[in-house]
Design brief:
Blueprint: E1 2-6, H1 10-21, E2 25-29, E3 43-46, H2 53-57, E4 66-69, E5 84-89, E6 105-110, H3 113-123, E7 129-132, H4 135-164, H5 174-183, H6 189-192, H7 196-199, H8 202-210, H9 214-229, H10 236-243
Parallel strand pairs: 1-2, 1-3, 3-4, 4-5, 6-7
Antiparallel strand pairs: 5-6
Amino acid sequence: MKVTLIGTGNVGTNLQAALTKAGHEVVWLRGRDFKAEDISGEVVIVSVKDDALPAVASKLGNQGALVVHTAGSIHMNVLPCPRRGVLYPMQTFSKSRLVDFKSVPLFLETEREEDMALLDELSRTISDSIHHTDSEGRRLLHLAAVFASNFANHCYALSADILKAKGIDFEVMLPLIDETARKVHQLPPREAQTGPAVRGDEGVIKKQSEMLSGTCKEVYDLMSRSIQERPLSGSPEGEKEIAK
């Protein structure tokens, strides 16, 4: 297919590589300075920051093509187009590291059945994991992904800062990080949990908390409490809290 891709950030760069590899003709435009007359093709993919979506959408004009965005938490109604939808790739992306798109789960939504057929056909050329979901399901997926990826990576950054204070290279953490990730391929995350909080080792928790200060201490205390409130058997109170 001929596809117009608007956006040259992390997601856009990876999408452009995947679409081109799959044999599609890609018109690649910068989100900040494209013109409606530059757009062509059967599908238009808008891959820009969530906050920039309304402004970019207002520049699309009256497109006859199917127009989709890639945001996890934004409704497709942000696109003022007669044919619209969403192609949400649930993965962490960086410009400097292209991912294997074949393994990236893609979550699709459109208003029209015929548009879903077109978007599904396009998506299956770049990924082996295709799912149809509505906006509410996609919002929950995005929220879960923030915990599983963004927050987890921030914990890596805090770990690196702690090690740096003693001149220890963060590389020593990589085998631990890799094994933690491998375990949840075979065990539910709750059963894979280890450490002083799940063991109820209050002495270690208290000493480690006292070693920290500021926001890092707050994160440690909150995470330890969260683990303790959700034991292996599950916590009705914790489940109610999440369900809100």
